[in-house]
Write a structure and sequence with these properties.
Order of helices and strands: EHEHHEHEEH
Strand order of the largest sheet: 3-2-1-4-5
CATH topology: Rossmann fold
Largest sheet: 5 strands, parallel
Shape: globular
Distance between the termini: 55 Å
Bound molecules: [cytidine-5'-phosphate] glycerylphosphoric acid ester
Number of domains: 1
CATH superfamily: HUPs
Number of strands: 5
């Protein structure tokens, strides 16, 4: 029996623009590491600021898509990359999961929770999909 007051909670973050199988794989695998999966979906403003472009799908749509998934228990808008510690504490996350394109980048949070990097699904990305569609 688990000696804890709340379900084993996993948190992850991402833009999840032009939702694809790589996104679904990482979310399903993240959920299997615990009993509850919370997903921080990055805001349009955050993307504009950090990537100098807006996502194809607006934040309300990306939130709705992620929230509808069987493997996801709750979603929230990630408004700043610098607020991860606050989000981890707020949701009482036990595990932070990210794809391994972020390997090492979130190790600083290992004092708050376990940090796990999962292997990315090969050969699929939002950027490639946008390029393919543009070239059609
Ligand atoms: N992913 C994956 N395999 C792919 C593509 C993406 O496993 N082929 C994973 C990424 O590693 C990430 C998640 O899917 O864990 C979401 O990917 P993005 O939408 O690209 O998220 P990103 O813009 O990297 O997140 O705080 C982090 C930010 O919100 C940015």
């Amino acid at each position: 029996m688990q000696n804890r007051q709340h379900p084993l909670t996993v948190i992850t973050f991402g833009t999840f623009d032009v939702f694809h199988i790589g996104h679904l794989n990482v979310l399903e695998r993240a959920r299997k590491l615990g009993n509850r999966l919370i997903v921080g979906v990055s805001s349009d403003e955050l993307n504009q600021r950090k990537k100098a472009r807006l996502p194809v799908y607006r934040e309300s749509e990306r939130l709705k898509i992620i929230d509808s998934l069987k493997c996801v228990d709750a979603v929230f808008l990630e408004e700043s990359l610098e607020r991860k510690a606050e989000y981890i504490r707020h949701f009482q996350a036990d595990i932070l999961v990210m794809g391994d394109d972020w390997k090492g980048k979130f190790d600083e949070f290992s004092s708050l929770c376990e940090v796990i990097y999962l292997p990315r699904t090969p050969s699929v990305s939002t950027t490639t999909i946008i390029e393919v569609v543009k070239a059609m």
